[in-house]
Every structure is written in C-alpha cells, then in structure tokens.
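Next comes one such specimen:
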Amino acid sequence: MSSPSDSPVSSTAASIDGASPRLQAGEPWLPEPEELPNTPWYEEKSSNLRLSDIATIKEKGGTMGKFEVILPHPDERAHRPPSGFHTFYMNQIDMGLRFPLPRFIVALCHHIKISPIQLAPNSYSFLLALAVLLSYHQLPLIPYILMQLIQIKRLGPGKFYISHKGDHTFIKGNPSSHKGWMSRFFYIKCDSMRDPWRCEMSWRDNVFTLTPRTPDRAPNLTSFLEAMRGKSYNAPDLIKEDLLCFFKFRRKGVEFVGDLGIVMSCLSRVFTFSRA
C-alpha cells in the first residue's frame, strides 16, 4: 500500500509553482532565463499573415459574423493593437481557440490574472483536452479544479505555457514546437456583444498562482486521477469539432441537433486508451 505522500491527490497538492524536474512528453523546449533575448520579441516581430488568412480565421475561429478581424500593418506589433481590438494568433486557432472564448478558459485567465492572448498555442489544446476529460467525468470546470491539475510556465516576456502539473502526463500528442507562431498574429474585436471577453485583456508579465478559495462543496479529484492513472489521451483527438460541440466548447452558429451517433462513436474511439 502506498503512503499518503505517494497518492495522486497528494501529488496535485504540491505548490502551483512546483514543476517536475524531468521534461514532460510533448512539452516545448523551455529556455533558461539567461538565454532569453534582451529585447522583447513582441517589439520586433511583425505579422506575416495574408488577406487570404482572414477567411480561415473566421471559419475555424467560429466568429459567426459577430467579430471583426483585420491584419496588422507591417509597422504594427502584437502588444499594441488598434483601439478596441485585441491580438490573437493563427496557431492558437489551429490548436483549438474559438470565439467567443470558452467560459472556463476565461475564468482561469481571470484567476491567474493574464490575458488569454498570452497563452502559447499548445495551452489551448491542452486545456480543451483536459476540459473534455473533466466533463466526461462530470467534474466542474472551475479554477479550483484546474489549478490542481495544471502548471503555468513563463516562456519569456509576455508568453505563458500551461501543461500538466507534477508527474501527470495523461494528455499527449501536441506538437513539440510551433515555429514562427509569434509572427502569425491578427487583430479582432466584437461590438455586438456586451463585454465579449469577460476577463482582463491587458498584457502582463507575471502570473498569479495562489490556490482558489475552496468551494463549499469541493469536488473530489480522487476518482478522476485514479481513472487517469496509466492512460494516455491524444489531445488532437480530444478536441475534434464534434467533441467540442458535444461538450459545448464550440459554437458553429447553428443549433447542435440530430443523431449523436457520430459524437458517441468519437467518444468511444477517444476514450479507448493506450498505456503510457
């Protein structure tokens, strides 16, 4: 019998800032502080997106006609969008970002006090995959739960990466790198919705990592962590459009009706796990 300190729940109770000394599978290479450039990347990089990319952004991003998307001029930078606009990245959309932003991601960003703009692309794929798993196990998507399962790493000025906390590695399959993603940014705004972002959108260089207040009826993660033990789920499979729609993380502008056989087939395939 393992000691209490060896339990999966105890491993999640470690400090939010704590990190496993070994490199996690699928995690990008993280530079040492002394290896970071002196000039922030966002002051140097312009956007290399083309007008033809706008249609892709609108289609994949699910803007549903409520958002205006424009491309930056050559002298404009990611951290200085035009008035009323905010910056996002094509690679974030490739990894599951949709508009409006999922409420649980908004709530998490509000808690850790950074803008969703600042999340590295794989963060979106990881968070959405984790949300699918938590929803499947009927756990609420609240910061109290999420902060026990994630760690937040600073990739440099204005960039943050969210991944497994501690030794958990049940979500895999994300690309090891997104070469050039910081030069693939666009500007977006929404005038048709009141407070469409629902969280702080200003750039910050530090993250807030204190544990959220424990709810009156605190959900128990024990059964979830036991279910995840020894399993490996592919993030791209978990964030397929049908699954995102089924769990209400994706809105296509039409009511999701009809035979759910496709979704349930996808669920059956995704939740057929392989040993790590």
Summary: The CA atoms of residues 137 and 177 lie 30 Å apart. The radius of gyration is 19 Å.
